[in-house]
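hey m, so remember when u said the tokens were messed up on ur end? i reran from scratch. heres the input so u can diff it against urs
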Amino acid sequence: MIDWGAAYKGYISDLTRTFAIGQIDAEFQKIARIVEEANAAGRATAGPGVAAGMVDKAARDVIEKSGYGAYFTTRTGHGIGMEVHEEPYIRSGNPIPLQPGMAFTIEPGIYLPGRNGVRVEDDVVITQNGIECLSDLPRELRRLG
């Protein structure tokens, strides 16, 4: 996993993609697809007036239904702006309604202890009608060598 960001005029970005070197085993390919689906579910759920916890639930449900729920050990996302981690926190049970102008990450992941992990993190901003995804780097697992 490569997690990086940039700063511009005091504002922060945060992005993660997963890469592999060498042969990719079948389970790693499987969890990569599941995490992509979880990220898509979170993005599809986010919108003005939606509770932050509902975005977490949408992403988490995909991973739990796949049988990997015990390996999603983090929150689904966090606000970005002047700090890399700030409100709104996209975590279970957070009732804060998302409002236009709020920027945050959607970053579900599956982490297999001692083996490997996959996270797909995008930056999004709430608009009047939904969300705008600020990241456009392909989300699929890519083999580097």
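this time it looks ok to me. The longest strand covers residues 86-90. if urs says something different then somethings off w ur setup not the seq
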